[in-house]
Amino acid sequence: MQLMAMPKMQRPRERLLSNGASALSDAELLAIFLRTGVAGMNAIELAQSLIDQSGSLQELMNVPCSEFCQYKGVGEAKYVQLQAVMELSRRYLLEDVVRDAQFGSPQAVSDYLKIQLKGLHHEVFMALFLDNQNRLIRDEVLFSGTINAASVYPREVVKAALKYNAAALIFAHNHPSGVAEPSEADRLITNKLQRALALVDIQVHDHLIVAGSCCLSFAQRGLL
């Protein structure tokens, strides 16, 4: 059945206006974004088909463009729009975290990093630059790609820390594999950076690994 042929109060837009967005299913919310269906499927059915094909709504949001464009009824334009929605949502959530949190505990950092790094298909290594009250001055991606001991140059990290007048740093990177356990390379680069920063009296509070919904803290593991 076409959406316009459905009773008005059963249509996703009308239901959202009357009951709020939380009352809608994943497929109904996605249908509002898609706006139209394809031959043989209305927008809700197309939305449910996309979710089923990808495995979940989260997986659909995280698939690369080449894979997304293979699904029936969507293309590059929809991929770009969906990524823009994702980025707006991420920035919206980060505003609250940055405003309210002091990064003095692994949990506060974990909440922030999961928003930043969850769902990435490539590995990135980043630093959080903190003031002496553990408030975030800036975050910066230092390296993208497979991490090894030679990937990040301590001199450049020290220069950035001095530039931002940071009192402490927290390092973080993601494991797209979903396994949060630190590798030997993770340990080596952490120790290398910690020694370099100690020479200019800047502390390294932690190094966290984000893997899916998991977040491992070097500090909690006793690795710092």
UniProtKB/TrEMBL annotation:
Domain MPN, first and last residues per copy: 102-224
Entry-linked Gene3D superfamilies: Cytidine Deaminase, domain 2
InterPro entries attached to this UniProt entry: MPN, RadC_JAB, RuvA_2-like, UPF0758, UPF0758_CS, UPF0758_N
UniProt entry keywords in alphabetical sequence: Hydrolase, Metal-binding, Metalloprotease, Protease, Zinc
Record carries keyword Protease: yes
Entry-linked Pfam families: RadC, UPF0758_N
Lineage: superkingdom: Bacteria
Gene Ontology biological process terms, A to Z: proteolysis
Similarity remark: Belongs to the UPF0758 family.
PANTHER family assigned to the protein according to its UniProt record, in alphabetical order: DNA REPAIR PROTEIN RADC, UPF0758 PROTEIN YEES-RELATED
Protein's name in the database: MPN domain-containing protein
